[in-house]
Design brief:
By secondary structure, this protein is an all-alpha fold. 76% of the residues lie in helices and 0% in strands. The protein is built from 4 helices and no strands.
Length: 75
Amino acid sequence: MKTVVVIIHLLVCVALMAIVIFQSGKASGLSGALSGGSDTFLAKNKSKGLDARLARATKWFAGVFVILTIVLNLL
C-alpha cells in the first residue's frame, strides 16, 4: 500500500514541477502598471487562456501533493 502511494506521490510531484515550469512569469508587476502593459489584449483575456488553466492545475496538484504527503506520514 505504501509503495503505491509513494509512486503516485512522485508522479504528482513531477507533474507539479512541469506545470509550474510551463507557467509564464508575473514579472510585469509595477513596471507593467506604470507603462500600461496590463492593457493589452492578451492581458485582458488571460483568465480564459492557458495561464489560467495552468494556475488552476497548480492549485489542484498542490492540494493532492499535500494530501499525499500527510497520508505518507500517517502510514
